[in-house]
Design brief:
The complex is a heterodimer. Chain A is mostly helical. Chain A is built from 15 helices and four strands. The C terminus of chain A is likely disordered. In chain B, helix 3 packs parallel to helix 5 and helix 5 packs parallel to helix 6.
Chain lengths: 345, 238
Amino acid sequence: MPGDLTRDAITITLVTGVLIWVLPLIVGTYTLTVLAIYGMLGLSLGLVWGFGGILCFGQAAFFGLGAYAYAIFAINIGESTVPMILAVLVPAVFAAFLGALMFYGRLGDVYLGVITLVVTLILFKVINSTAGPQYVIGNARLGGFNGIPGFPTLNVPGIPDAYIWGDRYFQVCAVLLGLVCMLVTALLRSSFGRIAVGIRENETRMSLMGYDVRARKTAMFAIGAAIAGLAGGLFANWAEIVTPNLFSLGQSAEIIIWCIVGGLGTRLGPVLGAAGLAYLKFLLGQQAVVDNALVTGLVLVLFVLFLPKGVVPALSALWRAGAGRRPRGRVRQRRRPPRRERLNG
Amino acid sequence: MAEIALETHGLTMRFGGVVAADRVDFKLEARELRCLIGPNGAGKSTFFKCITGLQSPSEGEVYMRGIETTGWMPHRIASLGVGIKTQTPNVLDSLSVHENIWLAARRFHGSREADRKTREVIELLDLGAISRNGLGRLAHGERQRVELGLVAVGDPWLILLDEPAAGLGAGDVERLTGIIHELNRQAALVIVEHDMQFIRSIAETVTVFHQGKVLMEDHVESVMSDPVVRNVYLGRKA
């Protein structure tokens, strides 16, 4: 369906363009930057979980690995282009290795959750205990729970002195988020993406069709980690410090909540869920009456009870109910499931 | 001598102390149609799972077109051009009929060719009216038919069906018979089945399993009239 892909690409470009222009009028770009980064992180799990059927409790591990990879290599290399690429590659390779271990070991879903969770914990513990001066990679001190501050931030590729910051950095993050959305769209429309959705639906059937489920799930897992790693690298640039908290369980849980609230099995849902909830957290952080975690928990509970499919699927169902009443040209067209479902399948 | 599509030598499957399949020697020629029957627990399904790779046999070998496939994973066996339908319907529930069949076709063809093959199979199985519906919303008979479509679209030379007629109405069974004859023009088939009416209408040679072993292997009419078979299997049902 190349025509559909072009249409999607145009839509994403337009929406990204308009948002880059409009949103800074309402919210500060410093906050918007991190919302875009979280959106990308949400999308990474949205892809792996919502379309690949792999519930990963450790998406934060790849996010943190990306951030640390960036910080460490930026200190050692002194510019940002190569570290940014490594921020994508390091988590991807790590995930490919971990994924191969799990999927070729024929682990069930529950154990997969447990292992990804434990890996996140291990990373957290390990990085946390590297406070001593003997823990260095090249010129970079790992710094334990204090993290790594003071690394070179993003610069124009090839010109190490031209730093990208402030409004410009927001635009870079937003454009990258748009690009990742397009990439994910293209992926889901490709045979690889359609087969991945088939695997989510029924692994046995897909293997009886002749597909190597293990290899394909590993690849999907690595792609999700690469996106999370990119988000991590961008986050490191935004925060200008990386700390072990990036690997915290709270962070992992939050990503999962974003996906549930936004809507699994959609591309837009996890992005909106991430940006919306992170913004809510930001607003709540400015007052001291109610606790942040309490509200996030309440939101999750309410969604699970009343809107279990999430915001985006609910909205698109509403939209369809409205549009469905309008007469259509051909009867067959009406039988065709709406676009979102076709994307799933 | 005709080409051998499927052959097993001394295939044995043990679960702890239970021998579910006991030194089964089985031979199927190209474009042959064979039904496997036997009472519950006779080892038909275990035998079926061992040749499809869903289980790995304890002993013995499996050959497909002369290639040893013992202990292979199902996806490798399927990749040889073997179509498999399991006992319980194994379909992709939230996807459309078209997508289900397309995914099966895509394994052996490019994207465009898969589109064409999918249309062809949808036509062949008369699924046109429901091709955009999700599998989860279809009736049991329709789901079974879609699963046959998944099997057929790969142009297999060996088809293994576990209870394809289970739970089907009379009209659906008749349609199934037609489809199976159509498939049989290209492929050898092994069909595990309980429905005697159905077996009579499609089979020539029948293999009877009893307590993990092959009890007898003969023409369908002589099997049905055999007193031993009647005792172990049909006798109990009558």
